[in-house]
């Protein structure tokens, strides 16, 4: 009887493991972090796929005499992304939030996410470099 109980517990345990998912923290730009002069669209394509509940970590220095300000905006749709139109965009990271451990953004929904630097009316976005999109796919055990 005890062996049946142990077997049942093992079945329940392994069944519960299959429903777990593991999220990753992904540093945007890898060692380049979030800075002007790096192509984040290429970076996103090389690092895909992204999964629901993964965290994107934006790391950037606060502005100073040698570092221009950067921010992180979540643009509302593809047209806004393509045109670098910040109207209706959500500020997710101010110019001072990327220091230290960085700003963490969790990909909670399975939908396109469009990110861009919005400083100086989106100049860094308009030059085509400081913007990228990701479309997280369903939770998956990955690591």
Automatic annotation (TrEMBL):
Listed GO MF terms: electron transfer activity
Gene3D superfamilies linked to this entry: Cupredoxins - blue copper proteins
Signal peptide span: 1-23
Transmembrane among keywords: no
Keywords assigned by UniProt, alphabetized: Signal
Keyword DNA-binding attributed: no
Residues covered by the Phytocyanin domain: 24-138
Protein name, as recorded: Uncharacterized protein LOC120263928
Organism listed in the record: Dioscorea cayennensis subsp. rotundata (White Guinea yam)
Lineage: Eukaryota, Viridiplantae, Streptophyta, Embryophyta, Tracheophyta
Name of the encoding gene: LOC120263928
């Amino acid at each position: 009887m005890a062996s049946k109980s142990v077997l049942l517990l093992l079945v329940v345990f392994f069944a519960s493991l299959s429903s777990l998912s593991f999220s990753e923290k992904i540093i945007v730009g890898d060692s380049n972090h979030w800075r002007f002069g790096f192509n984040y669209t290429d970076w996103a394509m090389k690092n895909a796929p992204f999964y629901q509940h993964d965290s994107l970590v934006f790391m950037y220095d606060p502005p100073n005499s040698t570092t221009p300000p950067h921010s992180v905006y979540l643009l509302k749709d593809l047209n806004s992304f393509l045109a670098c139109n910040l109207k209706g965009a959500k500020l997710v990271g101010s110019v001072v939030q990327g220091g230290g451990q960085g700003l963490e953004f969790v990909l909670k929904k399975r939908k396109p996410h469009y990110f861009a630097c919005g400083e100086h009316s989106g100049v860094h976005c308009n030059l085509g470099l400081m913007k990228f999109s990701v479309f997280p796919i369903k939770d998956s055990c990955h690591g």
